[in-house]
FAD-linked oxidoreductase (Clostridium ljungdahlii), 468 residues
Amino acid sequence: MNTDLIKNSPEKVVESLRKVVGDDWVTNDLSQMQGYLYDETETLLRPEACKDCVVVKPASPEEISEVLKYANKEVLPVIVRGGGTGVVAGAIPTQPSIILSLERLNKVVEFDEKNLMITLESGATLSQLLEELNKNGKLFFPVHPGDEGAQVGGMVAANAGGTRAVKHGIMRNHVKALEVVLATGEIITLGGKLLKNNMGYDLLQLMIGSEGTLGIITKVTLRLYARSKCNGTLLVSFNSQREACDAVPEILQEGITPLAIEYMDRVISEKAAEQLGTTWPAAKGSVDLMFILDECSEDDLYSNSEKVVEICEKHGSVDSIVAETEKDQSHLLQIRSNAYGPYKDNIADIMDVAVPPSSVPDFFDDVKRLTKEYGNEIVSLGHIGDGNIHNFIMGDNGKLPTNYEQLKEEIYKTAIKYGGTITAEHGTGKTRKKHMPLQFSQVEINIMENIKRAFDPNSILSPGNIVD
Ligand SMILES: Cc1cc2nc3c(=O)[nH]c(=O)nc-3n(C[C@H](O)[C@H](O)[C@H](O)COP(=O)(O)OP(=O)(O)OC[C@H]3O[C@@H](n4cnc5c(N)ncnc54)[C@H](O)[C@@H]3O)c2cc1C
């Protein structure tokens, strides 16, 4: 990789890029680049960003194509940057690089009501998408990672999940077409406004979750759905993790699929509420399940809420609270959204493992044992209907705890023992790359490396993410 050119002669790189995008859209001035050097990876885990970079902000796929042709010819690393809300250091440059920001590709291209699809440029944010859907009022897009500053291209590249996956799945389930600029500069379109398409290998699905390593996504077509008419939120408390977990499959077997089923250790909810200057409404028990139900009618909402409470009682729930008004519902959701807030300054790692849903109680028991063994104070929340648990490994007065690497590896191995995965929705990025061999055989890693080479022969795109 020709990183010396960027480090020693940045003015040459700046000049070449200015010829493509214009003078105003290239910089290597550190004060203007600060906001492009980091993402939302936990402070204690973030790799040190390399500051010998050049930021470029193209306005079209054609300009991106020219930038990539130049970078490929000179063999310069290109870090692809969306909204910068990622949590696995995917958008952090760790060597002298061109940082390519998608922020100027931010338009809604087409709202196709008849086909229930929307096409956006990849730099449009989730918040823009939601605003567009609110204007329309009839249609809905289900995937919602916690930060609305995420760009749709970043959500595709990270295959984002979020709280609503239990009912609607993840990005992979809703992306119908992508426009992509390859490392060698060709612009290709994958997929289309189709509900069925079986021709050839599915390159569209390969691009989803590729974290900037296989191509730069410039346009995204997403499937939309009819909005449900009635929403309700239920908070149900239990004395143990196992009782809470055991209630979930029975609710799903009953034919009730809530929009979200969130698990929370009580201590997290109480701290999150306290930080917001309010109180968590549940007092009995030590753990909570939060259910969000969205139904076609008030009758369905009431009868399904009753059934959920009934099943939870059968599994030992000690209290249930129905948030009927919009104000009560948003109060609960606001506290849930602030779960990370009180821990932010002293968190070593937010784990993101998933196990088959039936193994969640055993996984929780193993984590409790590890917590004792390693003397760490692990707290947990998660999208429990998907078997996706976020364990917070705590830092030691603002530093990684001494046994952090071993503890993390033990948790990964425990998840894999149950047929699980190291990361369910946050991705591999740079922070989890070294753990690939825990989950994949060398044969599988070799196939991934060959795929990377087929798309990006000089390995210029997002080096350091997933595989080399
Ligand atoms: C408070 C908070 C809550 C969150 N909650 C969730 C959650 O519930 N579920 C979840 O899944 N995630 C969650 N996230 C993580 C994050 O929001 C998602 O991963 C999101 O999809 C990242 O989008 P982004 O545009 O910010 O991407 P970035 O952070 O900019 O980039 C992420 C990766 O995608 C690549 N990339 C970005 N844009 C493109 C593009 N156009 N073409 C090719 N590659 C690209 C980058 O190189 C990088 O590797 C949360 C983050 C925060 C801060």
